[in-house]
Amino acid sequence: MTIESPCIKICVMDAASGLCRGCGRSLAEIGDWASLSAAARAAIMERLPGRMRAAGLPPATERPATP
Description:
This protein is mainly alpha-helical. It has one domain (1-60). It has helices at residues 27-32, 38-54. 15% of the residues are buried.
């Protein structure tokens, strides 16, 4: 099974949390994504919504679609 990238093309790092405002990954996770195993990617994907909420960033599913 292939785990696609959570990138939604809003690539802006939040200074306070160190997370991408678009996908919720750290710079290290973004940089390592292509070389991570499917299990490691799935584990990160599972944590993204919670870490986004904890950082005060709305998860992608709660944002309006961009034109």
